[in-house]
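User: I've been trying to design a sequence by hand for this structure and keep getting stuck. Would you show me what you'd pick, starting by listing the structure so we're on the same page?

Assistant: Good idea, let's start from the same input. This is the structure you sent:
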C-alpha cells in the first residue's frame, strides 16, 4: 500500500458504546428471528463494524467516532433487514414506496420531519436528526 493504515485510538470505547446502543435500539430483538440476515449480538461482535469505522476515521475524537459508527450500523441494519423483505416477494412497487417514505426521515435539510416511524428501519432513519447528521458530515 502507498500509505500505512492508521487505527483510531478510541476503537474499544466505540465497540462498547455501539454494542450498547444497538441493544437499546432493539437490533438484537427476537422479532427479527424470521429475517434472513438476522442480527445477533454474536454476529454483531464478529462483524466488528467499529473496526471499519476506526480505520476509516483514524483522527476522529471519541464522540465523533461513536456517532459515525452508530450512523453506519443503523444503515447496515436497514440494508440487512429491509432488502430481503422486498426481494423475497419481488415487490418493486412496495419497495419503491417504502424507500420514498424512508427518505422523508433522512436529514437532507433543516426542515422538521412530521412523520412518525411505523417500522423499525424508519426509527433508525428518524434517529438520525439534523444535529447527528451535521456531526457525522463534518
Amino acid at each position: 500500500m502507498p500509505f500505512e493504515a492508521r487505527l483510531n485510538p478510541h476503537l474499544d470505547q466505540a465497540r462498547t458504546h455501539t454494542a450498547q446502543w444497538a441493544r437499546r435500539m432493539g437490533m438484537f430483538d427476537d422479532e427479527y428471528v424470521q429475517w434472513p440476515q438476522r442480527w445477533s449480538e454474536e454476529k454483531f461482535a464478529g462483524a466488528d463494524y467499529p473496526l471499519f469505522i476506526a480505520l476509516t476515521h483514524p483522527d476522529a475524537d471519541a464522540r465523533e467516532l461513536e456517532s459515525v459508527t452508530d450512523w453506519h450500523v443503523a444503515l447496515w441494519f436497514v440494508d440487512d433487514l429491509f432488502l430481503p423483505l422486498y426481494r423475497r416477494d419481488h415487490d418493486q412497487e412496495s419497495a419503491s414506496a417504502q424507500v420514498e417514505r424512508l427518505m422523508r426521515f433522512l436529514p437532507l435539510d433543516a426542515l422538521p420531519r412530521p412523520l412518525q416511524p411505523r417500522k423499525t428501519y424508519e426509527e433508525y432513519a428518524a434517529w438520525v436528526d439534523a444535529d447527528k447528521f451535521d456531526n457525522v458530515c463534518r
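That's my pick for every position. To get oriented when you compare it with your attempt: The helical segments are 11-25, 41-47, 49-56, 62-89, 92-103, 120-127, 130-137. The radius of gyration is 16 Å.
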